[in-house]
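can u do me a favor
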């Protein structure tokens, strides 16, 4: 049995990036031999196994033949005659089709090393269009590698457009679309994901709420790529919390009502906690404007509406969204998020023991605690 490190691990090794997962291709073996060595098979249809100790993925070398329109409609061939070269050539993009042997030698039949050097993301062959999920994978890679100045070739965009025009998007599992979206949102340049989807015409099919809000701006700047990219750009300042980043995009794309946020969430099957936070930001971030000049009663009532006493973490997150969404040139608005965050932490730890002793029912306790918070904040603000 011969094994080769493949895919993203080799790509990241060459780019000197953090290697998250190691995947291996195995030659000269079969299912029976893998089971005998203690490997566990993943799923029913593909010859992919989990190593009993390292838990890394080991796959028998294989080729895939498209036999239908769905993303699962592939005939897999993994007999002993399948070579490493054939396995590598079935992959999506050139920079993911490099293997490395145990001596550190690269096997590169698709010129992936050259494309890594030239910072190119491109498909291997016309078989790229057999799996429409590759549209979102390419867009995700474009976002994740943008900090290294990688770009998607026009040839690959052409194949992506071709799949969309043919109506292939309806054959993709929605969960898989969200998975690629999630990876892109965690990157340093998540806006590139949506830009590439716009460029290949997938944005208006899948993220229709985002597209409808910016199509006039795009039309106005249709001959200026740099300005179009800036239409998608948000300030994330090294934030990696997906709920914050998604909320920032909802603000950026001016999603004006809860129904639109929920509609997008249902279609892409976005986790409910992410959608709920975006709704919370939509409902309350505008009331933080000029909060330094609002009464203490106004501040405490706003905090009550957000229900932050039971979930204090949301105040920090809302403050971050407000800060990141605000134009850096507007120092007054930048201070709004600071004071909102500060006011909450001034009053959140008020001792309620004496309040409980003097009151006998929950309503009286809530009213007394609310008044105490207002008085404390007034004292701090010298009102």
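np, heres the sequence
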């Amino acid at each position: 049995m011969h094994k080769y490190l493949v895919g993203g691990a080799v790509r990241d090794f060459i780019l000197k990036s953090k290697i998250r997962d190691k995947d291996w291709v195995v030659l000269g073996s079969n299912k029976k031999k893998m089971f005998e060595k203690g490997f566990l098979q993943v799923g029913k249809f593909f010859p992919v196994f989990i190593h009993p100790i390292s838990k890394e993925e080991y796959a028998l070398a294989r080729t895939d033949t498209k036999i239908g329109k769905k993303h699962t409609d592939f005939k897999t061939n993994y007999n002993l005659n399948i070579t490493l070269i054939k396995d590598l050539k079935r992959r999506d993009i050139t920079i993911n089709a490099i293997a490395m042997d145990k001596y550190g030698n690269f096997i590169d039949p698709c010129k992936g090393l050259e494309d890594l050097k030239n910072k190119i993301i491109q498909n291997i062959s016309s078989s790229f269009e057999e799996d429409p999920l590759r549209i979102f994978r390419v867009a995700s890679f474009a976002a994740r590698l943008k900090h290294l100045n990688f770009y998607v070739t026009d040839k690959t965009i052409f194949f992506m457009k071709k799949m969309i025009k043919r109506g292939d998007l309806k054959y993709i599992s929605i969960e898989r679309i969200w998975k690629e979206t999630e990876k892109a949102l965690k990157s340093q340049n998540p806006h590139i994901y949506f830009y590439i989807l716009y460029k290949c015409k997938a944005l208006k099919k899948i993220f229709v709420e985002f597209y409808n809000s910016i199509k006039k701006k795009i039309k106005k700047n249709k001959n200026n790529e740099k300005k179009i990219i800036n239409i998608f750009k948000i300030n994330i300042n090294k934030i990696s919390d997906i709920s914050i980043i998604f909320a920032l995009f909802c603000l950026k794309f001016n999603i004006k009502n809860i129904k639109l946020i929920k509609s997008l969430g249902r279609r892409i099957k976005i986790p409910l906690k992410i959608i709920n936070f975006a709704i919370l930001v939509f409902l309350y971030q505008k009331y933080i404007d000029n909060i330094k000049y609002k009464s203490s009663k106004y501040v405490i009532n706003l905090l009550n509406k957000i229900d932050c006493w039971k979930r204090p973490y949301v105040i920090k997150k809302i403050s971050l969204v407000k800060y990141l969404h605000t134009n850096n040139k507007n120092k007054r608005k930048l201070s709004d998020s600071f004071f909102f965050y500060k006011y909450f932490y001034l009053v959140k730890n008020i001792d309620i023991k004496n309040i409980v002793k003097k009151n006998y029912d929950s309503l009286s306790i809530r009213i007394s605690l609310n008044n105490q918070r207002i008085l404390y904040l007034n004292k701090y603000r010298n009102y």
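The domain at 1-113 is CATH 3.30.460.10 (Beta Polymerase; domain 2). hope that helps!!
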